[in-house]
User: Fold FprA family A-type flavoprotein from Claveliimonas bilis.
Amino acid sequence: MQITRKVTDDIVWVGCNDRRLSRFENLFPIPRGVSYNSYLILDEKTVLMDTVDGSVTQQFLENIAYALGGRSLDYLIVQHMEPDHCANIEELLYRYPKLTIVGSAKALQMIGQFYDMDIEGKTMAVKEGDVLNTGSHTLRFAMAPMVHWPEVMVTYDEKDKVLFSADAFGTFGALNGKLFSDEMDFDGEWMADARRYYSNIVGKYGMQVQGLLKKAAALDIQVICPLHGPVWRENLEHFVDKYDKWSRYEPEDKAVVIIYGSIYGNTEAAADAVACRLTEAGIKDVKMYDVSDVHVSELISEIFRCSHIVLACSTYNGGIYPPMENLLADMKALSVQKRTVALVENGTWAAASGRLITKELEEMKEMQILDKKLSLKSVLKQGQEEELEAFVSQIVEAM
Ligand code: FEO
Assistant:
């Protein structure tokens, strides 16, 4: 049975949902699954926008065959060569032997890297500004390198004013019958996963996302069709604004995220005390996370959202508590910047974590590290109230 949805009169969503994969890229937990989107344009020529992951091939082929209604497939546009989108090229060539594969020169080269298939004479390399006329539709290509791989391009359909945006504007989460963002409570149920997807998958490439947003601003876009998650046909600017903020590394909310790494609960207790004082001082949005327990992708997502960060960390074997070290490495890798950070350190032998974390933060751009560290020797003691007050006050003042 086909599972398809109409996007416009001529465009059909023929993608698939995967609710059985536990980790996207074998890294990121996806308890709500993920969708691999693919779109079929039915014009004088038929055009498929990308394929899907190998795990859902059977459903995908059924969707295409149904949507084609006995017609052949003329073009496959490969916007992105990550295997979650390109696993079915060879199968499509078997089924539709007259198929022409359209992509950037780099994408066409990557097909050969991934797959031993003969595509000689079956490809069309396109570059910035090239167009493909399919009858009544004109598809214009724009290169979007590093959003999220170097070969990526996006495609603008001039007739229906649709931007096929590749990985940009994607989110984790399977589409449970609802294809359009206006059919769901996007802010309530999806935004956290959209932020986690952005910050972890594309977060490193803010400059390139800014480049793509500039190109998009010059177009009249009525619909955004990403490769994952819902399609946008209403209130586009809401999501585009988020992308603009995330890619400029500007925090979304005046908020404090407290992330603690605690071996026996004593550093956690200090983090708790900080959270209480911040709340008493009137800071409404204060969140606490255990670095050992919460997946690093969730922490990165919260760091992208919040303006202020408290890192509370035990010293471990003279170094940084390993899960916190892992978080810091990820922050660096994903170009986290423009945040204000306060540090709580703990050490029974000698508290070194504050100094070592400072060194890591100094390697990130425009990170303001607040002067007053809260330093514990094993536990936060009754006598340290003044220190705690001063520590919290500096965060409140910085907000
Ligand atoms: Fe959804 Fe970069 O692949």
Q: What stands out?
A: The mean pLDDT is 97. The radius of gyration is 24 Å.
